[in-house]
Structures are given as C-alpha cells and as structure tokens.
Amino acid sequence: MSMRDTVRDTPIRFDQATVVAGGVAVLDRITLTLAAGATTVLIGPNGAGKSTLLRLAMGLTRPTSGKVTWGGRDDVPPTRRAIMLQRPTMLRRSAAGNVSYALAAAGFARAQRRERTTELIALVGLKDLADRPARRLSGGEQQRLALARALARDPDVLFLDEPTASLDPAATRHIEDLVRTIAARGIKVVMATHDLGEARRLAGDVVLMHRGRIVEHGAAATFFTAPQSGEATQFIAGELLV
Asked: What pLDDT was estimated at residue 111?
C-alpha cells in the first residue's frame, strides 16, 4: 500500500492563521478545524474572506502569521486536495480532453486516462457532450466539467468557491446533486456560497465569516435554528452585516 493510500490530508487545522494583503488583514487570526465527514459550508457577505480561506486551505496562499496543517503535517504538497474556483477556465479542447489533460497533470498513466475520463464525464452527466468543445458548453455544463477536472486528482478534500454563482435553478440543482454524490463517496467538501438556501440544503456544519474573522461555527441544524451570535441572527434574517 502506497503512502497515498495511507496518509490523508484531513483534518486541516488553522492555528491563528492570518493573511495580510496591502496592509489589510484579509484573514484575521483564524482558528478552525476542517475534519473529514459532512460538507462544511462557508457563508458571509462579500469580502468576508471566504475565498482566501479556501485558497489557504488548498495551499495556494501562505499565512502571513500563524499556521495551517494537513493531517498533522505542514508544508504538504496539494496532491490530495483539489479546488474549483468561481470562474474556471476551459481549455481549448473537448470536454473529455479537458478531463484527460487534468488526469495527465495528476500523474495518471496514459493507459488509465481513457477509462477514468469516461467515468468522470459520466459522473457529472456530460457523457453525451464528451466530444463537444468545452468552451461551447453552457455555464452550468462548464461548472460540471470543472468539477470533473477537480476530481481527476482523486482528492481527499474538494474546495468549491461559489460553484453555483450566476447559474439558473436547473443548473444549480445539478451542481448541488453532484456535491451530495461527491460527499457520499467520502470526499470532504468545503464550499463557499452566498446562498443561504444552498447552505441549508448541503451543509453538515456552517462557518459564518465577516471581515476576515470567524463569527460562528457550528452544526447546520443548530446554526439555522438557534444562532449563537447577533451577526448570525442578522445574516440569517437577510440583514446586512456592517
């Protein structure tokens, strides 16, 4: 059994992690544990720091101070983590070609790529569009293809940055169904969203962020029925946080 089979990246722990950019604390002394299990949803107003937290958890951003560890280790290459950014770029290839390229980048041998590409394309419901140029897919189809590319890494943890932003209700439903399927396969999903309804539907636990800090973190059922902070009460009620 390989190290990849035995060593996992969860839990991801933030210990007083701060990210400063342009003299501003984008993340301010974040202490948080992202454990394996149900989907964690990050919510909060624009500029709260959700995207930066995802990038920090992925390893794309380094903390200015404090520490992040993956499975108890630090400076771990992100081979067991994947991220889907809010506006993923489609390569000038077919849908299947985009997935095959991602598999090659993840180190899969050529002999494995065809079967794995077929599996991933089918998983995201694009089997009939496998040969279509990726840039000619609809917005929702491109988001599903981006999910397939992220899954090419066979990750322990999948980070999603507002994956349904600007999608219509049908496309949103497709993505939410995929998130449930992915989570049911044992992949830890950590997702940022601006949609409280989506958070209610998908979250096992909720992290409310505001001005780079964690205001409240708890089980979704408790968070939505008995919020512990004034900010959470306001946000759930649709009021602006200032």
From this structure: 87
